[in-house]
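S.,

Sequence below, as promised.
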Amino acid sequence: MINLKQRLNKRQVTIGAWITLSDLSTAEIMAKSGFDWLVVDMEHSAITLHQAQQLIQIIGLCGIVPLVRVSENNPVIIKRAMDAGAQGIIVPMVNSRDDAERAVQAVRYPPAGIRGVGLARAQGYGLEFEKYKNRVNSDSIVIVQIEHISAVENLEEILDIEGVDGFIVGPYDLSASLGRPGEFNHPTVKKALARVKVIAKSKNALMGYHVIPPQGEEVAKKIREGYRFLGFSLDTLFLGVKCRSELTKARRRK
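The prediction came back faster than expected:
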């Protein structure tokens, strides 16, 4: 398994994908496809906590870093995702400095944070708590989602919070907050994205972007733009787009 924290700190390119299906075989196939990390999505899926832990186990056993996108910036939800064995979290709708602080504190134990202590899978079911305690505050990963115009306006303060490893742009929600859902080429949306890049570069922050279409050239384009933490589509789109594309070719008549 790669040292994702180290690679993020060095601003190296990493590419992952979203898991929205609870099927373990799908997760295993994705994990063996060459991604650096995989995100178990608990915001926009029907995945339960029990299923998330199983997916985390499969992803980790395949040597890939398991992350969880939690459903909200809630310390109880974050604690349970981390206790299930996630190496880090992606937190939606972080729109202010206070939001960022709450996310970091929910991951860390006191005195650095507010996370309650439990003896679950992450702590070796109680047998490895000391080992886990000594590394969680320094090795855990917190990525905040910039997906609202308020987050863009407060991005400098968000990035000033110690413990925020970087951010990932959620293009659909960001465009929706501007009244242009899915219109990524609209001037207003492009202006907001340009502002994000300017601020991130001034702070030497880790920039991330979730490329939704399963098109490798779009990921390559974002890398050229300076993004280093790339979410590459999601399981359902990889499956659905490929099925439709190849079926169209099969039915094509000259």
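The two ends are 48 Å apart (CA to CA).

Coffee later?
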